[in-house]
């Protein structure tokens, strides 16, 4: 009965990693996967995560019982404070339904599933940025919500196509769903400025569109939680009902532990309570209850002042300036790589403009390299990236950034 099932193509990112692993060259560079690497190209377990892990291992009161359906309360509460700010009025008014999720992907799925079941007739279209994280399409297709694109990336300026974006919002039917990347847009690394966010919010409010914010890089992008969380907090202050999908894969380096949080901000506490009760039923039918370990790690850090400071320090107080802050170590290494790459292009006189490398933020950069150039980089230089010219900045380090710049310089001149 299943002979007609077609063979699906392999996942693009995982295919790149497999090809990279099989490559015998000592010069090989993997710029495909969006996972942090330290300056020696190795995965990095955050020191603060190691400390939290040791605390948990010593805690004799812990067991392997199920968590509640909505997850670990100390985790979901701390997650809400992180996303919405400690003084958030929405938190104080109990207007937020928060549920622990299977990382950011699970939060996106839970949100899409909820919208398909409870937003109008379930057929209200969702608009995705062009381009976007490839999984967004699959997630929304799985719940049969009609999808449209909105313009996002301006190929000429390699910046935001704000006019295209705003006019798509204008012409969409009232009350459409708009999926927005809260910070560090994947794959482009291009974010709206605060002024542009204001314009986006103005149109969305007038058109009564629903903001669905995917936030996979808070703190990881700039090293500043408030800066990266600005759009979320601004939309909440403006009084929108909205969804926020949070991932701790990048900012805690907990990729494989699948730690995330889903939030629905509603108009009042009563609605939030009802919404939470429905999403709990959805959660129950899919995963019963979320995994405990990663949430305990994050909760341990976020709820302890000293550990929180080690992960991230808000004030730039002098006495802390030279202490290791894990979030900033990652974000600043990436920012430093952007600068170094830009400097190499300058020095080489590589044709074209390269300021987008330092203007873009977060894990990824949309280089502007075309498909043919990407193929040549792989075949001739053992450099791996997606066909659209996106590179993961985390794959660059002091030992390979010059090699990469020279290779790009060469294929551009060919
Ligand atoms: N959304 C976006 C835009 C992402 O880039 C990612 C990570 N690649 C995610 C969500 C979620 O990833 P995870 O499920 O690993 O948290």
From TrEMBL:
GO terms for cellular component: cytosol. Its EC number is 2.6.1.1. Residues 27-407 form the Aminotransferase class I/classII large domain. GO terms for biological process: aspartate biosynthetic process. Keywords: Aminotransferase, Pyridoxal phosphate, Transferase. GO terms for molecular function: L-aspartate:2-oxoglutarate aminotransferase activity; pyridoxal phosphate binding. It holds the Pfam family Aminotran_1_2. PROSITE patterns: AA_TRANSFER_CLASS_1. It is an enzyme of class 2 (transferase). It catalyses: L-aspartate + 2-oxoglutarate = oxaloacetate + L-glutamate. InterPro entries: Aminotransferase_I/II_large (IPR004839), Asp_trans (IPR000796), NHTrfase_class1_PyrdxlP-BS (IPR004838), PyrdxlP-dep_Trfase (IPR015424), PyrdxlP-dep_Trfase_major (IPR015421), PyrdxlP-dep_Trfase_small (IPR015422). Its cofactor is pyridoxal 5'-phosphate. In eukaryotes there are cytoplasmic, mitochondrial and chloroplastic isozymes. Belongs to the class-I pyridoxal-phosphate-dependent aminotransferase family. Homodimer. NCBIfam families: PRK09257.1. This is Aspartate aminotransferase. The lineage of its organism: Eukaryota, Fungi, Dikarya, Ascomycota, Taphrinomycotina.
């Amino acid at each position: 009965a299943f002979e007609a099932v077609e063979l699906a193509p392999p996942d693009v990112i995982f295919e790149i990693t497999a090809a990279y692993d099989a490559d015998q060259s000592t010069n090989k560079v993997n710029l495909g996967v969006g996972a942090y690497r330290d300056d020696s190209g190795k995965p990095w377990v955050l020191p603060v995560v190691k400390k939290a892990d040791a605390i948990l291992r010593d805690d004799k009161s812990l067991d392997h019982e199920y968590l509640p359906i909505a997850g670990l309360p100390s985790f979901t509460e701390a997650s809400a404070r992180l996303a919405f700010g400690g003084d958030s009025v929405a938190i104080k008014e109990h207007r937020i339904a928060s549920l622990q999720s299977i990382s950011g992907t699970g939060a996106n799925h839970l949100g899409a599933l909820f919208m398909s079941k409870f937003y109008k007739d379930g057929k209200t279209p969702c608009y995705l940025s062009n381009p976007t994280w490839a999984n967004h399409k699959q997630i929304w297709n799985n719940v049969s919500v009609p999808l449209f694109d909105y313009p996002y990336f301006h190929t000429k300026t390699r910046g935001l196509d704000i006019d295209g974006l705003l006019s798509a919002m204008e012409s969409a039917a009232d009350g459409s769903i708009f999926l927005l990347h809260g910070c560090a847009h994947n794959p482009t690394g291009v974010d709206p400025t605060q002024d542009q966010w204001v314009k986006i919010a103005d149109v969305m409010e007038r058109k009564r569109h629903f903001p669905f914010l995917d936030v996979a890089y808070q703190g990881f992008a700039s090293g500043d939680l408030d800066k990266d969380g600005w759009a979320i907090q601004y939309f909440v202050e403006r009084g929108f009902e909205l969804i926020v999908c949070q991932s701790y894969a990048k900012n805690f380096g907990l990729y494989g532990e699948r730690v995330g949080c889903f939030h629905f901000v509603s108009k009042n506490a009563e609605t939030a309570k009802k919404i939470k009760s429905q999403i709990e039923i959805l959660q129950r039918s899919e995963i019963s209850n979320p995994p405990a370990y990663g949430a305990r790690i994050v909760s341990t850090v976020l709820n302890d002042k000293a550990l929180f400071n080690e992960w991230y320090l808000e004030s730039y107080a002098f006495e802390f300036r030279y202490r290791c802050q894990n979030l900033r170590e990652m974000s600043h290494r990436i920012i430093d790589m952007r600068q170094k790459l830009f400097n190499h292009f300058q020095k080489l006189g590589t044709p074209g403009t390269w300021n987008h490398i330092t203007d873009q933020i977060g894990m990824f950069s949309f280089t502007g390299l075309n498909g043919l150039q990407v193929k040549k980089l792989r075949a001739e230089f053992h450099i791996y990236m997606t066909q659209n010219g996106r590179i993961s900045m985390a794959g660059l380090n002091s030992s390979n950034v010059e090699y990469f710049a020279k290779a790009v310089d060469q294929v551009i001149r060919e």
